[in-house]
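Consider a protein example.
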Amino acid sequence: NIVNKVVVVTGSSRGIGANIVKTLAKKGYRVILNYNKSENYAQNVQKELINVDIFKADVSKKAEAVSLINFAIEKYGKIDVLINNAGISQSKLFTDLTDEDWNNIINSNLNSAFFCSREAAKNMIHNKSGLIINISSIWGITGASCEVAYSTSKAALNGFTKALAKELGPSNIRVNAIAPGIINTDM
């Protein structure tokens, strides 16, 4: 029953994430829209829909990612679907990448999925049901010039997805990745 399905979408106040939230909410899912900096965008998405909660968390930080997942479980008792959509990109020559640039991209694009998935998986394993979808990128498959850190983070996310799918599959939890090409968003 879709009405009872709970979905958490990270980084979903704009772009692909906002469209995922709108689509799922209109189909009747209970959706938690996660945002970090774009509160106005998050509120605008929420105003259009009746079954959307918004939750501020920088999911690149473990404690905040855990608080997002805990919010969903405390409010609804479960998480049926986790969509790891949070991410950032940066176009820069490899030789100009700073340690901070590298760490920001890896934390936002890879570690956020790790933190949220690990926490959500505990609930999903208990319920013997769940779905984790990681939003990757074509650059994680082919690589992109001037986007080495971004491409690396998405390639690692693809490996994370494959390994986690094998581990969680026996618990009736599917783990998949979607690797979009160029999409007309702010990013």
Summary: Strands lie at 6-9, 30-35, 52-56, 81-84, 130-135, 173-178. The mean pLDDT is 94.
